[in-house]
Write a structure and sequence with these properties.
Layout lengths: L3 H19 L11 H8 L32 E6 L8 H4 L2 H14 L21 E4 L8 H5 L7 H5 L11 E4 L13 H11 L6 E4 L6 E5 L2 E5 L13 H12 L6 E5 L12 H11 L3 E7 L8 E5 L2 E5 L8 E7 L2 E7 L5 E8 L3
Parallel strand pairs: 1-2, 2-3, 6-7, 7-8, 8-10
Antiparallel strand pairs: 1-11, 4-5, 5-6, 9-10, 11-12, 12-13
Helix pairs in contact: 1-2, 1-8, 1-9
Length: 353
């Protein structure tokens, strides 16, 4: 086992330096180049990648990784992305679709049973709803706080159980929530304010810039990385927060980790395979049991694997659907709720001791 606490940061910094020395990274709508990043990080062209005894890569190709929740765990949560408040101005009553999804989230605990194929049993009350980005269409004040005739994101999702939704919300920003593809940074700043004012129950670690955060549900360690796990610029250096958070709050304990962020693994609009290599080098020796993301506006829950890790594109609320995750000592079920009585895509993964 490598000593992450002493050596992990070198993997992050030196891997970026090695990529720069190998080739110039393609320019894909980023406001900081890799060379600028290296300069900001204080690295030099003479830096070399340290020995492979640091974090020996697992052979993930064509194989499925096995995981454990380590100790007692029984956690239910919801996941949905791309709520896009403000889109009613373009594609009809998007607000209504969000309200319908919320009403289903409130109804199903204690009323809807999982399919017999994954063990049945009623859905438990969720610990919370994770939301990997694109909460709004342009990141504006009205899209967050509400229009004259339409509610905003805050009205529907930010009551911590006292508003329309009966559970806390753990949201992150996507490319539409600030000036990358939006017209304002207002929504992005509201996420920061909610972090710094303790608006989300249980958040135990917040990045120094106030954007990224982590929290625990039983033995699960949950990490929000907002846009994506990369460096300075649009992603607000979430990759450095991730590395530090895992070192400090997970270490060598083997506890299960779930990550969520907005960008997907196929379109690579704001990151590429080299960024993914850096990300993988940081997480590969941790017990990452799932990654949840959005961005692609898939019509149904999309369950795949990325380098042996289970990944879930949870779709958008414009479909009226959302994902329900139930994680115990023996298995992880991620299922798509379609209505108060029916399921769509249902996936299960056995968890080993």
């Amino acid at each position: 086992m490598c000593n992450r606490h002493n050596l992990g940061r070198n993997v992050y910094k030196n891997h970026y330096n090695l990529i720069e020395l190998r080739s110039m990274k393609k320019n894909i709508n980023k406001n900081i180049s890799r060379r600028q990043f290296i300069k900001a990080a204080g690295l030099t062209a003479g830096t070399t990648l340290m020995g492979c005894n640091l974090c020996k890569a697992k052979n993930y190709k064509g194989k499925t990784r096995s995981f454990s929740t380590n100790t007692d765990c029984d956690v239910t949560f919801y996941a949905v992305a791309d709520t896009h408040f403000g889109r009613h101005q373009i594609v009809g009553d998007n607000e209504l679709k969000n309200k319908q999804a919320i009403d289903k989230m409130n109804y199903i605990p204690g009323n809807l049973s999982y399919p017999a194929s994954v063990g049945g049993g009623l859905v438990d009350a969720p610990r919370g709803l994770i939301m990997p980005g694109d909460l709004t269409d342009f990141g504006t004040t009205s899209e967050w706080n509400g229009f004259d005739t339409f509610d905003g994101f805050k009205d529907n999702y930010c009551g911590n159980g006292t508003g329309r939704l009966n559970c806390p919300v753990y949201e992150g920003f996507g490319n539409h929530d600030f000036v990358l593809h939006g017209t304002s940074d207002y929504v992005k700043q509201q996420i920061k304010i909610r972090n710094l004012t303790g608006a989300r129950p249980g958040v135990s670690n917040v990045s120094s810039n106030g954007y990224h955060y982590s929290f625990n549900w039983d033995t699960l360690h949950m990490v929000n990385l907002n846009l994506q796990p990369t460096g300075p610029g649009y992603a607000e250096n979430s990759i450095e927060f991730l590395e530090s958070d895992l070192q400090t709050n997970v270490g060598d304990t083997g506890r299960a980790v779930i990550l969520y962020f907005h960008s997907d693994f196929d379109r690579e609009d704001f990151w590429d395979e080299q960024d993914e290599d850096v990300f993988y080098d940081i997480i590969k020796d941790y017990n990452v049991i799932a990654i949840f993301y959005g961005h692609a506006h898939v019509g149904s829950l999309l369950a795949e694997q990325w380098r042996g890790i289970n990944i879930y594109n949870v779709g958008l609320t414009g479909t009226g659907k959302f994902a329900v995750a139930h994680i115990t000592n023996s298995k992880m079920v991620v299922a798509e709720c379609v209505s108060n009585t029916t399921w769509g895509v249902v996936t299960t993964k056995s968890i080993t001791a």
